[in-house]
Amino acid sequence: xxxxxRFRRFLSRARTLRGFAPLALTALMVAGAAATAGAQQxxxxxxxxxxxxxxxxxxxxxxLIFWATIVFVIVEVGILYIIFKFKARPNSPDPEHVxxxxxxxxxxxxxxxxxxxxIAVPTVRTIFMTQAxxxxxxxxxxxxxxxxxxxxxxxxxxxxxxxxxxxxxxxxVNFKLNTVDVLHAFWIPRxxxxxxxxxxRTNYLWMTPRDSMTLKALNGxxxxxxxxxxxxxxxxxxxxxxxxFASWAAHQKAPAVFGVAPAVAPVxxxxxxxxxxxxxxxxxxxxxxxxxxxxPVGFVFxxxxxxxxxxxxxxxxxxxxxxxxxxxxxxxxxxxxxxSSCIGCHxxxxxxxxxxxxxxxxxxxxxxxxxxxxxxxxxxxxxxRWIKNAPAMKPGSLMPAIGSGEYNPAIKANVTIGGLxxxxxxxxxxxxxxxx
Length: 436
Ligand code: HEC
Ligand SMILES: [Cu+2]
Prior knowledge:
Layout: H1 4-15, H2 21-36, H3 38-41, H4 52-85, H5 102-131, E1 139-146, E2 149-154, E3 159-162, E4 164-168, E5 173-179, E6 184-188, E7 192-197, E8 203-207, E9 216-222, E10 234-240, H6 242-253, H7 273-292, H8 330-338, H9 342-345, E11 370-371, E12 376-377, H10 380-388, H11 390-393, E13 407-408, E14 413-414, H12 422-433
Parallel strand pairs: 1-5, 4-10
Antiparallel strand pairs: 1-2, 2-3, 5-8, 6-7, 6-9, 9-10, 11-12, 13-14
Helix pairs in contact: 4-5, 8-12, 10-12
This protein binds heme C and copper (II) ion (CU).
The site of copper (II) ion (CU) has 7 residues, from loops.
């Protein structure tokens, strides 16, 4: 049995550790402060209470950590006690040899089994919750993974867009996850759990963002390695009020306004000569109004509300040169675009020539903040360079180099036939920038 003097020696040794107490306390306080500052300092932290989904998983995590910490402390104290108490000392006799101890063995099997069983209850409950079917009135958003960008469709609104997701707060959103090529995984850390996009299979993920998320800009990521630009396959999430969402959706749903022919006046029914002049005048008025009416631009997430972490910082490589200050002409650009390879890969609603589905839908490109998997800011400088040589901007990009004379890795040669001059690229960029 433990002799009392030995225990006192143990204690006196422990006392020499007292000097470290202030240090340990400081470390604890720093850790605590960091955890509190989490949301601002770590914009992509997952431990939030911003949706029902992450509330459930964060609670589960917190309670598991709580119980695990208690177990950890008990075990560590036990280990330290035994180390000090039973260590070999001068003249101590050989320890007693034992062969098994049924009571102990049952205890150290049963206790962990009970702990695991207890932990399993909230775990399984949370798993069932996150795997359940979404409520029927949820907002459906189809998420389609492409190497290396995201397609988002809102079937309820007839919208197809890319890399930037608008979500109304306080309505459940049900993501339907598919991929056109390899595996990807969809993750918006601030809103909760990630889920894989698997070939030939449909996965779902749903959550209800809280009101407090209104006007927050968040980051989204691909979290399943999917090839050379996996790290460049990001997206943005703009949390908005239901009214703002309705305004955004109404505008996104409408075709691009630039370059769309004014509505043709209906063939006039036979009219009496007296009425004719006014009718004609009215028709002319209508046609002019259509041609000149400023495009009603729907709600766009306000720039000043963008979190700093959602503004891309990547810059185009210096190898893609472009004459400074060269400006383009949107009308000319529309014509060039409409007879270039672009139309085979991109869709612009309102431009009947442009019906490709290989690349992102460009109908309202100018209402987006980012380009190419949210890797670049949507600026003129980046846009012209992207059109000129996308693969040099983003390794592996499935959009080919289009600038005349640029190296196109897809064909291991420089672009000749069909290549665009810098002026033509500036024109095309001006056209795309008119697609608000
Ligand atoms: C062979 C198909 C193909 C052709 C041709 C093509 N693109 Fe692309 N484009 C893509 C793909 C794929 C992407 C997505 C690349 C990525 O982000 O990895 C893309 C991305 C873009 C983007 C960024 C869109 C966004 O939302 O991030 C713009 C702008 C663009 N293309 C414009 C053009 C223009 C203008 C032309 C013609 C001069 C053109 N593209 C020709 C396939 C193509
Ligand atoms: Cu990926």
